Every structure is written in C-alpha cells, then in structure tokens.
C-alpha cells in the first residue's frame, strides 16, 4: 500500500463532491435564496447551526473558532442567528419540517440556557420537527452543566456528540486540551439522566506521544461510556494552516506506519466489542441508525461524516456554514464580522459554493458509494444517471489500471477488498474530475 501513496498522499475526506477547496465565488446570496424557494413545499430538510466560539482554543483543533471568556460576543452572535433565521423564514416554502437539526461549532454549549431556549423556539416556529426527527448537539464536557442540559432536553435534543481525542494526560497536555475521563463520564451521566440516550463520540489517532498501549487504554475508557457511534479520526497536523498547532512538537508525532497501527488498534477494539464498522472511520452499535442504514445500502456522506439522513436539502446557518441543495453547494462567508454585516444588511452572507454541472452528480455518487459501501453498483448508476454500461466499464478499467490487482471488478460492480480499505480515499480520488492538488487535504491514513 505504501507504493500507492497510503503513507505520503494528502487526499480529501470527501464529505462533499466537489470538495470545499473547489468552491468558487459564483454562488451568491441571491442564488442561495432562490434555491431555498425551490425546496418542495411540505418536504423535510436538515438544518445545521454553527456557533464559532470557544472558551479556550485547543492547540490541536483546526476549526475556525474564536476564543472568548465573556458572553458578549456570543449574545451578539445569537442576534445575528435570529436575523438569519428570519431571512430563512421569509424564503422557506410552506409546510417544510426538519428531519435533522444539528448545533455544532466551536462550542454550541457556550450558549446560556435562555439563549438555547430562544434559538430552539425560533427554529421550531420556522420549521417544526418531522416525525422521528433527530436533534443533535456537540457537547463540550468542560462547558456543560445541568441547567444547559435541561434547556437542550426541553428543546427536544435526542443525540449528544462529544469529542474525546485521547484520555491520556500527557497527550492532552501536549495537544492543549485537558478533559479528564471523570469530567467526560459525568457529562455523559448528566446527558443520559435527561433521557437523551443517543451518544456519539470522536476519538483521534495519530496524536503526539500516542502509543498502542495508550490508544488501547483510551478506547477501553471510551467503551465503558457505551457510545452508540464512534468516529475514529486521524489527527491532521497542518501547522502552516492551523497556527495553534505550531505549539505541538512535530517530533512527538507518530510516523505514518505507526498511525496505521494506531488506527488498527482502535478498530480491533471496537470490532471486539461488537460495534459494526461503518465506512472508513466510524463504528456503531447494532441498533444504531447508521448500522441500520449501512445494512440497507442507505448510508450517506455529509459534512459531519456519515449519516442516515436522506434529505436532499441541508441548510447551514451561521458563519462559514455550508448548505447543500439538489442544485449545488452554498457557503456563508467564514469571517464572523463579515457574516454579521451581511445579515444586518438584510442579506444572506453566501460568498462561495458550486453549481452542479456535467458529471458532478454522477461522480459525487460514485465517490459516496466507495466511501460508504466500498462498492459501486453498476446497475444503480445506470438507472439513476442514465449512463451506458460502456462508460461504466471505461471508468472501472481506468480505476483498475490506476490500482492494478487491488480492486474486484466485474460488469455489475467495482469493490474494494477488505485488505485494501485503508486506500479508499485514494481510490475515490481517481473518480474526482477536479484539481487533485493536495492543498487543504489530509493524510490518507
Ligand atoms: S476542540 Fe472544541 S473547544 Fe477546542 S478549539 Fe476546537 S472546537 Fe473549540
């Protein structure tokens, strides 16, 4: 696998296609508004709300987020979100409901309980939850308490998402993020005490000073919390892009080969504990929605990774949020100040995106199928996109030549064997028709 670039290639995570670095400045707020108006009345959509503030900025984290010790900027930002939701209300067709609502960041749990109530109430008045809707919130165990969880539970929260990174104290100190197991466990207990039973957790491999022994200990501690879903992500060390990471000593990082071993260590522990393997980096319990969707061939990819959400519209509000429509992608401006100005001027802050053209939808599906199922079904592609078998054969043959002896290829399908799955993102990239420069992407492992 080394000679195919597993240890030295930077590739997209393919949470969208085309990927965000390919977005251009030709999707404006007017286009975004038109796409909202074209949503089918009475349909269900997903809504993402971005809160770009944190109490302290962790060194390892590449998120664009602002550190604040006071509530003033958060309060001001809430007013902007309310104004943005009012713009959305004015354009949204009648009868639209929410199948998914996600609050992410940053740290959405920086909001005070009254702010949470206000935001949730306004969203519900614009688009109420559909039957069996899911409302998930990224919970920072260092920044949560009983009143805030009461407010979230009262607003209908169904799923909590917590970041763990690693429980080892030396690793936590080196990455500038202190979050003890006890603090995390107490947060999980408080969440469950409110009847919020679904729990996601992220854990990282490839961190400085991480060893297989430390990984094993951290995964075992995480398993004791019984999350329904786990994402096992690789730490991306990009100090030239994320300046805070300059505080992390590069020499303490594991080698690419060690990263693969760390991933395998975590993976085996989850599989031993009867978690199902979902795509390239997720694990879920047998009764979790992701596992059910995976078995049914209905697993999808979105900006949060894997999802069982089947809505074809996802609207993102807040600075830097990305929306997805059947027509393309639209992204709000990233800088909070510029976003605030646009909304105060009565306009959406959309500044970039992508309008689907040519083979975009076809290639998006080919890549999604590989990322979700490690398999492209020729019959599905013919049926959905009206593509002839000759074209499919040509694409399969091109992939075969790029990865000789690696793929299972027949007339009816192309699949990636289990042993070659660490190469999935590299193989998916061979179906990407856009600029394949490595800028802005992360290690294949
Ligand atoms: S890890 Fe969480 S709390 Fe830390 S900087 Fe990133 S978003 Fe903020």
List keywords for this structure.
binds iron/sulfur cluster; three-stranded antiparallel sheet; 445 residues; 14 helices; single chain; alpha/beta
Strand content: 15-25%
Arithmetic mean pLDDT: 94
Please, how many helices? 14
Which structural class best describes the helix and strand composition? alpha/beta
Strand order of the largest sheet: 10-11-9-8-7-6-5-2-14
Largest sheet geometry: 9 strands, mixed
Low-confidence stretches: none
The helical percent reads 25-40%
Name the shape in a single word.
globular
Instruction: Let me know the number of strands.
Output: 21
Through-space gap between termini: 11 Å
Over all CA atoms, what is the radius of gyration? 21 Å
> What small-molecule ligands were found?
iron/sulfur cluster
Short description:
This protein is α/β, with parallel strands linked by helices. The protein is 36% helix and 22% strand.
Task: Furnish the topology, listing elements before pairings.
Elements: E1 10-11, H1 29-37, E2 44-51, E3 53-54, E4 66-67, H2 72-91, E5 97-105, H3 113-126, E6 129-139, H4 146-154, E7 159-165, H5 169-175, H6 181-193, E8 198-205, H7 212-224, E9 229-234, H8 256-272, E10 276-278, E11 282-284, H9 289-295, E12 300-302, E13 305-307, E14 314-317, E15 322-325, E16 328-332, H10 336-344, E17 350-355, H11 360-373, E18 375-377, H12 378-385, H13 389-402, E19 408-409, E20 413-415, H14 424-429, E21 442-443
Parallel strand pairs: 2-5, 2-14, 3-4, 5-6, 6-7, 7-8, 8-9
Antiparallel strand pairs: 1-21, 9-11, 10-11, 12-13, 15-16, 16-17, 18-20, 19-20
